[in-house]
## 1
Amino acid sequence: MTAAVARPVEVRREADLRRIRAVLSTVATHAIAIAVALCFLLPLLICLVTSLMTQQQAGTGALWPSPFAWHNFTDVFHDMPFARDLWNTVLYAGLSTIGVLLSSVPVAYALARMSWRGREVTFMVVLATMMIPAQVTSLPLYVVFSQLGWVDSLKPLIIPSFFGDAFSIFLLRQFFLTIPSELTEAAKVDGAADWRILRSVVIPISKPAIAAVGLFAFLYAWNDFYNPLLYTGNSSTSQTLAVGLTTLAKSSHQNAYQLQMAASIIFLAPILVLFFFAQKVFVEGVTLTGVKG
Amino acid sequence: MKHQPSHTIARSCLVAGLALVTALATACTGGGSNKAAAPASVIATDASHAPTSITVWSFNTLAKEVKAFQDDLGRLHQKYPWLTVKFVPGKDDAAFAKAVAAGDPPDVFISTAPDYVGQFCHNGTVLDMSQYLKLANIDVTKTFPAASLVYTQYQGKQCALPLLTDAYGLYYNKKMFAAAGIASPPKTFSELIDDAKKLTVKNADGSIKTFGLVTRTDYNLNANIFTGVHTNSKFYDAAGKATFASDPGWANILQLDKSLQDFYGAGNVQKFVGQYQPHSDDAANAFVKGAAAMEYDGEWHIGEIADEAPNLDYGIAPFPVPDDQLSRYGVGNTQGTVVYIPSRTKHAQEAYFAAQQLTTDTTFLTTLADAVSNVPSTFDSLKAWDQAGNEHWKAMIDILTNPGSYYKQLTAAGAQDATAWGTFTQNYERGKAGDLTAALKKFDQQVNTMNAQAGQ
Amino acid sequence: MLAGPARSVKGAEARRSRRRRPDRARWWVVLGFLSPFLIGLAVFVVYPVLATLYYSFTDYQAGSYQPVNWVGLRNYRTMFADTQVFWVAVRNTVWMVLIMVPIQTVWAIFVAWILTRIRRGALVYRTIYFLPAMVPIVATALSFIVMLNPVGPLNHLLSDVGITGPGWFSDAAWSKPSLVLMALWTVGNTMILFLAGMLDVPKSLYEAAEIDGAGAWKQFLHVTLPGISPIVFFSLLTGMIYTFQYFTEAFVASGSANPILSSNESIGYPQDSLLFYTTEIYRQGFQYFRTGYASAMAWLLFLVIFAFTLVFIRGSRRWVYYGGAR
């Protein structure tokens, strides 16, 4: 048999084989992907079903609630100061997001679009502050905040965010650097000052990046545990949800898994809703943190 | 612009920073140990007084306990209308110390345990109440059982007052004892080991259904088995040096722990602890569930069992003593809630007045004891308490009033020595301590260093 | 990259600026833009870092009225001396840095690689894989405590297939692996980075490799991996910096597995297997009030992270330089 003239049957068989191989590989890939997806979903599912179990059933290894205890979701509002914690968390996350954006955008602009001596050093300082562990600063800061009478309030959590946040500055700078210079040059020729360029050119173009940074700041505050633990951990008025969830078992002397899970569901629901509506922003924001190879 | 702004700023930041550091370091330390002016008098109970409002912090978080305190303080206000108390629950020792550091302490602080009495006393954080007590004609030795003075005094200073006491005993399941043919709870270590073995029930597959007694240090309140009282050991000798290597009692109690663990197998004990530790205080507790025939626990467990398993047929006995110390049988580890007055409170007189009422008024103590399932802490209130006849409570009161009962000595290092000892015993249980004698010697050094650094 | 040089502008303005470098921003404008950050830097970073340094040479205790003594290097000596607890914390932290972070990175690469192989439904898969990264850490830790409790759902599922599950968070031998599992679950952010990196690798390289007869594994090894190596370095670096400061997960896991004690008292539970460097600092500083000693520990951590970062960046010549003048 010469290679040049292949018989139609053989050609078809080869094509069939290739198709079968392609189908098989697709099936295999999807099988792996589905298995991994199940691993990722399992903890959330367990969290969800446990939140609907009774005290007798929760934590016993049962996989399906019987009976369904929907009252867990109302119980958490009675058994812990849930509404108050939720409100504090919203306050903390909301206000500190505003603070981070207001203070970080100008700094990032100065680092990315203005030329001045000491700029690189300043940027290095920004990067360096990202590496300082919270534990290094928290001991003296605690003393300062308590002398100011801010402990047991949300002030130590919110006010610092109005003085720039290194991570946000870094992200915004990365994005501002990618703005083509023609756009700002045009404004410069008109004699617009930096402040105007920032407001009328840079900020409108950077909306996605600013949204991502805002989201990250919000998430950071929503998740934050160490600072609220330190400053509001024993407070009867300013506790946040992250800390409140961990003291639920201790304050009732009952290890009520179902209540912890119900509270966790309410705690993570807003974040998941945000995520579904703004997944694109999240993904772009995360990509912004990376360094392109 | 000739000079470089960022450098100037950095330099001024540094200068400002350093200035701030020194300023604050002097400000918040205040310098000098605290010598609160000795009071000339105390507020008489029948005198009128200018209306004063004070803040009382407590560790309690349970709703019924918080309510009991609020009721009590409400009664105090009714009795003495000039005194208004703002009650703040859910504060621990750390929160208190932080508030003191911040210069904004409460007027009275009620702490769950006496671990920090030594530290707060040594550091001048809290008031020495001796002078106040003297002026108020209160003789502490005639008022409070000796066991509760061990943990409220430090180097002769009365830095705290006991408010309700905790005693620890051995809870035992009477049904299981009867089934195993054991007539009375064990009195000695060897009896304890024998009984624990007899009470152990295995499943068909060889796994353990019921444990006699699990003594692993980090389970439930077992750490209190190792405070020394059961072998007549003290953490420190007269010179204040650690005795873990020199006193054979320590190795003795560790040996008891090891024999029980070896009998069950470390893996089985681990399973038990993993399953039941999260439920130490709730309805899934191992003793309530019948997974353990005996359990070492504090007296508040009586209240928990009453809530969770009212039909459980159980008794309470003192924890056994070494075979050669049978005459000491009946002693137990005792500690309790303590009341502090921070030394820099602006209302020392009123704070002491409130503290004295809280800690010595029989009605306060008995109602509070009922609400939080603790033992009242004065001789008078113990006599007057309606629960004193109940067999469970009686057993705990006997342990508490036994002259041989005590809590470990307090030091300026606060809770550190007990925590370090807990870590040591856990390492020993995991077979990581190596040669015990050498390890205990090294541990002695560790604790001595700890105390030396705390300024002891 | 930099903003390009301004076109010359006519007039006095231009002459004045030509005396210096062109396009220099006026310093007071820069200062205006920077002012919030500079104030924050002074108050919330520079001052506390220096204060901690000062404390670390004293026997200062928060809440104490004892005079503060300068004790020189005593706190640092104590750390390295016989306090075994310090070394336990160091060992546990190093374990996490050297074991958890690489496993996490490999897993993130694997998951991202799966996503590149999927044509249909990629968005759904990506959403599911990314979702857990959004769950607040505390909620994650609590969920895992429930899922991994010794008689809980996962061990129940395992026993159905004949495996006796371990005690997870309650067993000193398994508590750190449990945290690793938790870290694998929340790998979404790193995964997105790798995915972006993989999609950036030119198709032509893959085609060339295919012509050379390289299979999927060979292609991954010789095309994909080199293509994403900067991201591997980046994620290892940030992962390790994060893990040196690992606090919340450990604190919550220990506290929830042991509800009988307060969270502060259960630091390290079970049996100090979850005692990490930062939780030990927290315990020394805010539980024992040894502010001086805790400050010394904190400073050492700062130095270690700093040195580690420098070495890591030096050691990886591929490191992408940040923008700015070169």
## 2
Amino acid sequence: MFRLRLVPDNTKIPFMNGRIAGLVVSAVLSIASVVLFFYPGLNYGIDFRGGIVIEARTPQAADFPSLRHTLGQLGMGQVALQEFGSPQDVLIRLERQPGDDAAQQVAADRVRNTLAQAVPGTQVRRVEAVGASVSGELFANGMLALGLAMLAMLVYIWFRFEWQFGFGAVVTLLLDITKVVGFYAVTGMQFNLTAIAAILTIMGYSVNDKVVVYDRMRENLRIYKKMPLRDLIDLSINETLNRTLGTSMCTLLSIIPLALFGGEALQDFGIVLIFGIFLATSSSIFIAAPILLFLGENRLRRGSPDASASASGGAAASS
Amino acid sequence: MLYFARWKIYAIVLICALGFVLSLPNFLSRETLASLPSWYANTRISLGLDLRGGSHLLLEVDMAAVIRDRVEGVVDGARQQLRQANVGYTAINAGERAVTVQLRDPAQSDDAVKALRSLVNRVGGGALGGGVPDLEIASSGSTVTATLSDVALRDRATQAIEQSIEIVRRRIDETGVNEPIIARQGTDRILVQLPGVEDPDRVKRLLGTTAKMTFRLVDVNADPTTGRAPPGFEILPSAEGGRTQSSYVVRKKIEVDGASLKNAQASTNSQTGEWVVSFEFDSVGSSRFAEITKANVGRPFAIVLDNKVISAPVIREPITGGRGQISGNFTAASANDLAVLLRAGALPAPLKVIEERTVGPDLGADSIRAGLMAVGVGFVMVCIYMIASYGLFGSFACFALLVNIVLTLAALSILNATLTLPGIAGILLGLGLSVDANILINERIREETKKGRGVFASMEAGFSRAYSTIVDSNLTTAIKMALLFIFGTGTIKGFAVTITFGILISMFTATVLVRLMMVTWLRRTRPATLPV
């Protein structure tokens, strides 16, 4: 009977041989991401920066130079025009207008009127105008959600497993998230509320993945009381490899259509999630597991040959 | 573990059937729905503004104006009370939230305090009275200060926002928008969601007008172009840029205000054919209006809307019927809008639009099409993968996945939840996570089989071992979604809701429904080996 297997059964890949390489590569990428976060920085969308986005569909293919000229003459700072979807679809972005929150409204109306005059028959398909105080709050709430989610993960895993597991998962999450932020910086994709949702989704997926692998390690700790931690971690990863890759594959299969046909709004979301799934899957193996190995070598079990002679020092296998 | 009591089987089948029935109204046409009982036809998922098109507006009440209003009221009141009490003063100054009176004679400060006390209102009390004074009055030497208390400020703010919401609701109802959502947000904000409104400009204009209407006397002797008004008067611009003149000198004292209006209608003047707004006063307003017009025949009477003079007709004869007309270069639409504003009443303070998100209906339709396409393709691809990987058990998982979607739709329908674009993404992601549970189970069963266990033992062990893992991984996601729901706004909330339901329901479909299918199959065929 034919069965699709992403990896052969009974693999014995010595993942922990690559533990240093994995951690170093990850750390370098994350540090680079943090640098990119500050310079050149993220392309904040209007959710977080305030400003105006107008999506319009012109009756014929849009004449970008003349539109740019017309809108540029309004004296409202930089006007970014972008084609997306078809040549008739124009995305207009304006910086946050000086003045109070209501100034955005005035500016949006002016653009609308100017469009209607310059290109008769233009259909305004979408208008978003966000003032400064609202965008500040949205950003603060988004960051708060990210922080609290992280904390909740830590506490939950700590209770369900041992602190080493919780710590390992959260450090891995931090490394994952910084890379996602770096991804936003490199690609220049809009960082907005949807981006926060995407990051939280990746966090969820990543933790989900780690929990499954950890779960197997905990179970194996009970079964193989004598096995060195390093071998045990390798064994656990190998045992769950088909599941890890299978799940990633399925999630990818359900997200790729989002990136392909999801329309402008969902496309970015899909692309980031695809990146996130690769990230989360690899970090389960190359980051979360090595951290656990370093932290748990003397503590999670005794009798490990790597651990020094202090065999009596460690705690018994986890509960 | 592998035995299902008969009632349990019935319960599982019943839940699935119920899910199917409850999700059905989402797929029926409008005509079919109309023939169904309303309680059933109404259990549908409503589409978010990003999917069906519409406008989302966040309005902010100008609290500074609310407080300024009260402070100015205290200044006026103080002037009157002090004059009545024969207390001499050199100056009355309005601060941000306090009024200071400089007395001519410090010896009169007790009298002044007593006079100002009459301006104090008690706020926060119930029907039986009580509450706290809204003004704190203090004196030192020749200075007397009346300060608005914190409680008073809070009370004002609450009143202002509640009143604003009421007025906003009335105004929007007049525009005929279907199913608007008008809700308070935070201390000084109002969220307005208008489904299907393609051009929110009219609504924004309606909401952006305070519509404080007053009737005041005009001083015809003073010249408004000098830029200086005599005491007790102010210069107000004309609303129309001046058909007759561009500004007027108007008495500050309000003779009649818009609160006394009973009704307002747009109509055409039978003689000139131009659009006018005719209004009708209530009994108090009528008698007041009659009194004023009687005493001021031959003088112009200004109709002031939001500090602009709409018109200033000369009173030809006393108006006793309590009816009047405002003419002022109206079009049909602007006359109608003014009538709406007057009928709905004045806002206690100006409203500012601080966030707008409008989606046109055809963009919304495009988004739905794209979203459904993504879900459909994703579902098919996952099914192909699952069947290729796990054969018969994979197809069980696919069926469970289908039931998962149906139950998620049913749950969202019961709650009348709003489906948004991120919500669709959430459903898709929920599919990915719920398939994870099935993969975990199938992989476990394979492992147990390879260890040489029998058919039943493998199934038993596979399910029970996978179960704790599934709970762990799903709970972490559920916790996060709860946070997302609490701190997220708008569409993000929808995303959190759909994923949470997806997770809860996948616990049922993956561990209960799939097990029932596997066990049933096992009992029927009694296979020697498992087809995983």
